[in-house]
């Protein structure tokens, strides 16, 4: 797929990947190699004549290389690809904190925890409020499997920087990985407060509440799923969540608290989902979908 | 193009109304008449110019974004991508090994 594109197309694709914030590391590496050979350049840096673009690309490819096991030298290489690129960046920007951070990430990718920790500590003594260095220190614990330590570092960080939504998301994910739904839910509450118009955190919060699954939690989950459906209509994830929550509330377990709204919302979600899929799915797939819905209805109402 | 012409036209009409007002006031002073208020045609022209210019500038800046959030569909993989929290200890090193 990569081979049929022209060099400028591939460069545009790289830039698009940067701008739309996608990880896609294997693709990035492939594109970088194809661009370099397509230009007949000796190094990746030489393939980019535009000065501003060149260093962005080098950073992007270095990170992708770390993702794809190119932080350590592979067969036939004197120096790994990631290390070469980081070295070039460090030569160009010797004082840059961004490059130092990348160097730290390279240490991490090579498994040199002591080196990485030392580097981040140095950054932190220089600038005590260095957010990125603190976050990377949490990542080191995460990478080594010490999730409680990572959580405590991040929890202390968000106490100071409560507006850092990425840190909240990461913290919630760490809590979820430990099965600590209560605390994860708290993180999502913070995120909803900071960005009430984003459907994502409503959905996440509702999913966490649904997983916890008491009556109050399910009712709150229904509310947030409904809000997500309102903000972003025709989103399969929130519609399915709404459906699942309402059918859970309709089950035998909560028979005393049954209200007609659950059935109405359930019917609404199913009809919207069917409508949504009828635009995209083929006939046999639709049949399968209908069957699944009728089976789910049977299991929840019986 | 139409909106630009309309806006320039509206601005000119507004300017013309302001100029007429000044002229009218000067005329009143010279005639030594004591009268407040403006003739109806100037008032109407001002209002018309304002409506025209407002319409033009709104049309020119359109399309507006949805007040209830973004029109763009959420891409969950992009939302979940946090470069600053990348961990490199994963299967990628083995999966994407150079052959």
From TrEMBL, chain A:
It comes from Capsaspora owczarzaki (strain ATCC 30864). Its main location: endoplasmic reticulum. Part of the endoplasmic reticulum membrane protein complex (EMC) that enables the energy-independent insertion into endoplasmic reticulum membranes of newly synthesized membrane proteins. Component of the ER membrane protein complex (EMC). It is a peripheral membrane protein. It comes from the Eukaryota. This is ER membrane protein complex subunit 2. Belongs to the EMC2 family. Residues 102-208 form the EMC2 TPR-like domain. It holds the Pfam family TPR_EMC2. SUPFAM superfamilies: TPR-like (SSF48452). One of its GO terms (cellular component) is EMC complex. Keywords: Endoplasmic reticulum, Membrane, Repeat, TPR repeat. It is found in: Endoplasmic reticulum membrane. The keyword Endoplasmic reticulum applies. The keyword Acyltransferase does not apply. TPR repeats lie at residues 165-198.
TrEMBL record, chain B:
It is a multi-pass membrane protein. One of its GO terms (molecular function) is inorganic cation transmembrane transporter activity. It holds the Pfam family MMgT. InterPro entries: MMgT. It is found in: Endoplasmic reticulum membrane. Keywords: Endoplasmic reticulum, Membrane, Transmembrane, Transmembrane helix. The chain crosses the membrane at residues 36-58. One of its GO terms (cellular component) is early endosome. The keyword Transmembrane applies. Belongs to the membrane magnesium transporter (TC 1.A.67) family. Component of the ER membrane protein complex (EMC). This is Uncharacterized protein.
């Amino acid at each position: 797929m990569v081979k049929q594109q022209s060099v400028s197309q591939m460069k545009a694709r790289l830039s698009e990947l940067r701008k739309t914030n996608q990880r896609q590391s294997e693709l990035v590496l492939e594109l970088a190699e194809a661009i370099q050979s397509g230009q007949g350049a000796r190094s990746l840096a030489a393939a980019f004549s535009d000065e501003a673009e060149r260093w962005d690309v080098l950073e992007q490819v270095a990170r992708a290389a770390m993702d794809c096991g190119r932080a350590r030298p592979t067969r036939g290489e004197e120096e790994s690809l990631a290390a070469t690129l980081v070295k070039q960046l460090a030569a160009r920007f010797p004082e840059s904190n961004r490059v130092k951070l990348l160097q730290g990430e390279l240490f991490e990718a090579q498994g040199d925890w002591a080196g990485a920790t030392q580097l981040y500590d140095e950054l932190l003594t220089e600038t005590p409020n260095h957010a990125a260095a603190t976050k990377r220190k949490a990542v080191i614990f995460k990478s080594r499997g010490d999730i409680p330590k990572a959580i405590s570092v991040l929890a202390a960080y968000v106490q100071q920087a409560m507006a850092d939504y990425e840190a909240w998301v990461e913290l919630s994910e760490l809590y979820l990985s430990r099965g600590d739904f209560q605390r994860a839910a708290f993180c999502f509450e913070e995120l909803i407060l900071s960005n009430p118009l984003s459907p994502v955190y409503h959905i996440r919060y509702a999913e966490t509440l649904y997983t916890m699954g008491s009556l109050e939690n399910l009712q709150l989950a229904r509310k947030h799923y409904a809000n997500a459906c309102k903000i972003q209509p025709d989103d399969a994830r929130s519609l399915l969540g709404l459906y699942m929550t309402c059918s859970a509330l309709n089950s035998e377990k909560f028979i005393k608290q049954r209200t007609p709204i659950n059935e109405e919302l359930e019917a609404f979600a199913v009809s919207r989902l069917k409508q949504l899929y009828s635009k995209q799915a083929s006939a046999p797939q639709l049949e399968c979908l209908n069957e699944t819905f009728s089976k789910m209805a049977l299991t929840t109402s019986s | 193009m139409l909106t630009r012409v309309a806006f320039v036209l509206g601005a000119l009409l507004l300017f013309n109304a302001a100029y007429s007002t000044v002229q009218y006031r000067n005329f009143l002073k010279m005639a030594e008449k004591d009268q407040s208020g403006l003739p109806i045609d100037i008032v109407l022209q001002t209002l018309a110019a304002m409506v025209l210019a407002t319409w033009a500038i709104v049309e020119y800046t359109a399309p507006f974004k949805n007040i209830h959030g973004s029109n763009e569909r959420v891409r969950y993989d992009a939302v979940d991508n946090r470069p600053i929290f990348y961990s490199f200890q994963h299967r990628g090193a083995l999966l994407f090994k150079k052959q």
